[in-house]
Amino acid sequence: MKLSPRDAPAYFARPDPDRTGLLIYGTDAMRVALKRQEVIAALIGPQGEEEMRLTRIQAGELRKDPAMLLDAIKAQGFFPGPRVAFVEDANETVAPVVTAALEDWQPGDAQVVVTAGSLKATSKLRKLFEGHKNAYAAAIYDEPPGRAEIEAILSKAGLRDIPREAMADLNALARALDPGDFRQTMDKLALYKRGDDTPLSAEDIAACAPVSVEADLDDVLHLVAEAKPGEIGPVMKRLRAQGVQPVGLCMAANRHFRALYAAASDPGGPGQGIARVRPPVFGPRRDRMQRQAASWGAAKLEEALGVLTDTDLRLRSAGQTAPDMALVERALIRLATLAQR
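That's the DNA-directed DNA polymerase sequence above. Prediction below.
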């Protein structure tokens, strides 16, 4: 039977122990692995693997020894409780072995959990589980988690008092990060808030969110956007000493001003516009960029993007003779002066 994307999260959290098996497949190996971990943990409990109620079988090993799966399904261990026979990285070559194992399955046997990559609709493995009366097949798509799934992750991490603004930031963060990184960030956030009874804030999220590559360049970009040309020189000197490349700095400035332009030109105003920026920004940095977008306005930001585009083209020109970092510094000072007008 097929598990729809709407019903799958609830089933993964509370799988039926009396089912014959479950196939989880998808192109993103991390997403598939996270769902598999959730299902197996729900079936056998936190001590299941220690009590040897989980048998792991690589698909490559199963091809060499087809009896492994049936032996794992029928084997009885020393510890009572549900058992799982897990087949990892399955493909069409093991479909006959899995078919035979499901046909021999009886109530009380270990449940068969199979993970696979992308499977076509004509896949024998996929047809086997989709057509089975007592087994499920679930496709995992490359989509960010929905609100219900995010709330389940938060609850599991021990985070419960989530204001609406903080939840909006978490939704944005879930869209920007890989599933594994997002879960790790939630675990980090739970530790950060341990012993703190105040509601989750944007500042808390900003403190725990992964630091972007551009974080080291924020100082100079904020000086430019806030019209402080006299303070740019010392920061540029520090960036040169750190080995920051002129092209990289120009690209970072371009991204920063594109984000400001998107916020300033949003029909709902800079507040709504900055909330739509990707990757998302949080806490004080978001408020700061929102003020910058409102101060500049869309027209001046469009002019600033033109300056940065011209600078980027000059940096990449074969006939360029002036020092690259000097070109970028001059462009940034020009932008900071433009902001004062």
